[in-house]
Amino acid sequence: MPIEKPRLIVRKDERNPRETREGGFNADLSHSRIGSPVRTMQMFYRTIPPGHYSGNHRHNNEAIIYIISGHGFSIVDGERVDWGEGDVMTIPPWAWHNNCNLSAEEPVEFLAALNRPMLEILKAWRIEDEDPKYAELSEKWMAEQFDA
Fold first, then answer.
1. Distances in whole angstroms, Cα of residue 148 to Cα of each of 22, 89, 122, 137, 145
2. In the chain, what is the straight-line distance between the N-terminal and C-terminal CA atoms, in Å?
3. d(Cα 147, Cα 87) in Å, to the nearest integer?
4. Which residues of the chain have pLDDT under 50?
5. Phi-psi category of 94—alpha, beta or left, where left has phi over 0 and alpha has psi -120 to 50?
6. Structural domains in the chain?
7. Per residue, what are the HEC states of the chain?
8. How far apart are CA 147 and CA 132, in angstroms?
9. Which one of 37, 62, 73, 128 has the fewest beta carbons within 10 angstroms of its own beta carbon?
10. Residue pLDDT, tens place only, 73-110
C-alpha cells in the first residue's frame, strides 16, 4: 500500500470555508481531516460578521485565539474579556464562552489553535452548546467520533 504524502501547506485558494451559524466563515488550516501531518492539534481561520457573536458553548479541549483584525469581547465562564487586533486569548477546557464582534461595519478575523484532534484520537472529545438546535449537532459529532 503506497504511503500518502502529507499535506505540508494549505494555499489561500485551497481553503474550504464553511458558513457558521452567525453568518461568518470557518476554514480548517491544519487538521488530519485535510491531510495535515499534525495529528494532535488543529488550527482554523474564522470570521464573525459585524454586530454578531458566536453561540455560547463549551468543550473539553484547550483553545488559543489570535485576533487578526477587529475588536470585541468574549464571555468566558461569566467574565467579560475585551480583545482587539494582535491580542491572544486562551480558553480553558470546559469553560462556557462566546465571542462578540463590537463593530457595526467590519468583521472580526481570528486564528484558533486547539488540541481537539488529540482528544478525538482518544475518543474523549466533548462539546456542549447552550442552543438546543446546536446541542443536537454537538451530540451528532460525538456519536460520529465514537462510531469511527
1. 29, 32, 12, 17, 5
2. 21
3. 38
4. 148
5. left
6. 15-147 (2.60.120.10)
7. CCCCCCCCCCCHHHCCCEECCCCCEEEEEECHHHCCCCCCCEEEEEEECCCCECCCEEECCCEEEEEEECEEEEEECCEEEEEECCCEEEECCCCCEEEEECCCCCCEEEEEEECHHHHHHCCCCCEEECCHHHHHHHHHHHHHHHHC
8. 23
9. 37
10. 999 999 999 999 999 999 999 999 999 999 999 999 99
Give residue 63's identity as a one-letter amino acid code: A
* The C-alpha cell that represents 90 in the structure block: 486562551
Tell me, what amino acid is at 78? Answer: G
**Cell (9 digits) for 144:** 460520529
Per the document, the length of the chain is: 148
